[in-house]
From TrEMBL:
The organism of origin for this protein: Litchfieldella rifensis
PANTHER family: BLL4206 PROTEIN, SLL0310 PROTEIN
Protein name: GNAT family N-acetyltransferase
Top-rank lineage group of the source organism: Bacteria
Annotated Pfam families: Acetyltransf_10, Acetyltransf_18
Length: 288
């Protein structure tokens, strides 16, 4: 009887199911297996904002994939994981294709590891840049009078932050900003009562992550990041930046070493930023 049961389990085909909060604990196990330093709270944050699919085999989670919707025309894709022992069997492609079917013809964005480039390219995704992951415990910084430009965001600032972010990234991310305001800290640079830059900082992984960061120029972005660092002495910090941000060398001097590079990709018409501000740091590689 035992041998027959084992054969049945081994022969059972993985089944697709919608990703729900009931899958979070096993999803944490998958990311830990790959060495991703996610906490259960990080998975819950991502799952609460998006939707996705899982692959289950004999009651065990062996894969995940998620999508986050921004307005009617844009979405980001990520958290695409397959258990080590289940890789090489097309399960990642099956999960990814389920995301694509859900998404339809809208523009899709993602950040790809080297291993994922082939899968995404075959499905019409094109490279549009790179994202550099910087992390570490910052070295002590010198006092800077420019930190006086930054203050904690107030509730009345949220509509302006939302508008600035939408103009800068070219797609509406109000729900993401609301969650960031609730789970972390938002800081702003304001001129004559108008928000011209902002940064979010929250618990994540081994410490804290700073991002998104939106600012008029690199100097203002550095001040926003420096302000967040100053409130977290001796704390592990992660910042994911577009390669074009011009912040990499400065982050290195602050003790945040570049540890990884991923390829930013898009299928469809990329979002069109407007206004004078730029995106200097991402919320995360999955959420954008």
């Amino acid at each position: 009887m035992s041998e027959q049961t084992n054969e049945t389990v081994e022969a059972s085909a993985p089944e697709l199911a919608r990703f729900t909060s009931a899958h979070l604990q096993q999803a944490l196990g998958l990311s830990s297996e790959l060495g991703w330093p996610y906490r259960l709270e990080d998975w819950a944050f991502a799952q609460g904002l998006g939707e996705g699919w899982v692959l289950e085999q004999a009651g065990r989670l062996i894969g995940t994939a998620m999508r986050w919707q921004y307005g009617h025309a844009f979405a980001t894709l990520g958290m695409i994981i397959v258990a080590n022992e289940a890789q090489g069997r097309g399960y990642g492609a099956r999960l990814f294709d389920a995301l694509l079917e859900d998404a339809g013809p809208q523009t899709l964005l993602l950040n790809s590891t080297q291993e994922g480039l082939g899968l995404y390219s075959r499905r019409g995704f094109l490279p549009i840049g790179e994202v550099h992951q910087h992390q570490g415990v910052p070295v002590p910084g010198l006092p800077s009078p420019e930190l006086g430009w930054v203050r904690a965001a107030e509730v009345s600032d949220l509509p302006m932050i939302d508008e600035l972010d939408s103009e800068t990234v070219g797609m509406p991310r109000g729900c993401l900003l609301q969650c960031l305001a609730q789970t972390g800290r938002l800081s702003v640079i304001a001129r004559n009562g108008v928000v011209t830059g902002y940064a979010a900082c929250r618990r994540f992984g081994r410490g804290h992550v700073i991002g998104p960061v939106v600012a008029e120029d690199a100097t203002h972005a550095q001040v926003l990041i420096e302000d967040a660092i100053s409130k977290l002495p001796d704390t592990f910090i992660r910042v994911d930046i577009p390669a074009s941000s011009d912040l990499g060398s400065w982050l290195e001097t602050r003790g945040l070493k570049r540890v990884d590079t991923v390829t930013a990709m898009v299928r469809g018409t990329p979002p069109q930023p407007s206004g004078d501000a730029r995106l200097f740091a991402l919320c995360s590689q999955s959420l954008g």
